[in-house]
Design brief:
This protein has 302 residues and is α/β, with parallel strands linked by helices. The protein has twelve helices and twelve strands. The chain has a seven-stranded mixed beta sheet. α3 runs parallel beside α5 and α8 crosses α12. The protein starts with a helix and ends with a helix.
């Protein structure tokens, strides 16, 4: 969905360039054929890709870089920090395979620390869309957004959570359901799980506010403050380490709000997994299946 939306944007913006680190050949076939002068395959040289992107941006181009999350964020951290963030350049980083999406490839391809790393860098915006409609909306927003952005995607084929195209603005969360007992704040690949969990809890008689917090930085502090006022308990759900991600960002707000209710971060434990398997299998191992989360929240709320 991200690349298809980018193709449409290219038709109206001649300054858009797309760079990739030797990935996504089938995904890019249409884009490359239509805009071959604005598509560059850098090869297995991701750090160099960031340098090229910086140069293009300094030449007033609107640049997107695409790669698997660990290769894009961790392998290129120094270049992102010095070349992009320090100069506040207009480069968008599209990372695919967030969380445990590449479960079969092992821990080298798992992306469980990237949000923590990226949101600690000054000037960068960190966005984690929850379904294909949010991806499309964020891509449209990104084309007119000034400054570096990290857009973290899962893999194609994720379920649609929103019934219609959401009115999405970077930096503002989306309230999917309103409730008075607890608030669940989720994003990315766990938004669909959070919706299933929310529906199950409602059936148990617990009134739930469900929020898609697609932007982790800048965080929608006002929306979190609304949760503080109305909710006896607040839970975050993410496919990321419990350290430094969405939960930590929310905790930083709650720590300054004197919130006295229950707060829990639901995510991947502080470990490098020894399991190999598809995403659903790994999420179940780490307690991130809908059933496990429903039980956890029910017990914590009691």
């Amino acid at each position: 969905m991200a690349i298809q939306t980018l193709e449409k944007l290219c038709a109206i913006d001649n300054d858009i360039f797309l760079l990739t680190g030797d990935l996504g050949y089938k995904i890019f076939d249409n884009f490359r054929n239509a805009y071959q002068d604005r598509f560059i395959n850098i090869g297995v040289a991701e750090a160099n890709m960031i340098g090229v992107a910086a140069g293009l941006s300094l030449s007033k181009k609107n640049v997107y870089c695409y790669s698997i999350v660990p290769f894009l964020t961790m392998r290129c951290l120094e270049q992102i920090r010095v070349d992009l963030c320090y100069h506040n350049l207009n480069v968008k980083l599209i990372g695919v395979g967030g969380g445990l999406a590449y479960g079969l490839e092992g821990m080298t391809h798992h992306a469980i620390e990237d949000i923590s790393i990226m949101r600690s860098l000054p000037n960068i915006t960190v966005v984690v869309p929850g379904d294909a409609l949010e991806v499309e909306a964020i891509m449209n927003e990104s084309a007119i957004y000034n400054g570096p952005i990290y857009i973290r995607l899962g893999k194609d084929g994720a379920p649609i959570v929103h019934r219609t195209m959401p009115k999405l603005k970077i930096g503002k969360g989306i309230v999917i359901n309103n409730g008075i007992d607890i608030s669940i704040i989720a994003n990315g690949t766990m938004l669909q799980t959070a919706k299933i969990v929310s529906d199950a809890l409602v059936n148990k008689g617990i009134s739930v506010t469900l929020i898609s917090m697609h932007t982790v930085k800048p965080l929608d502090k006002e929306l979190i403050e609304e949760c503080v006022k109305r909710s006896k308990a607040i839970f975050t759900i993410e496919e990321h380490s419990v350290i430094g991600g969405l939960g930590s960002a929310v905790a930083e707000v709650l720590a300054q709000s004197s919130y006295r209710g229950v707060f829990r971060i639901i995510g991947i434990p502080d470990v490098y997994g020894s399991y190999i398997g598809k995403g659903d299998y790994l999420r179940e191992k780490y307690g991130l299946s809908p059933e496990a989360i429903v039980n956890y929240i029910s017990n914590a709320y009691k």
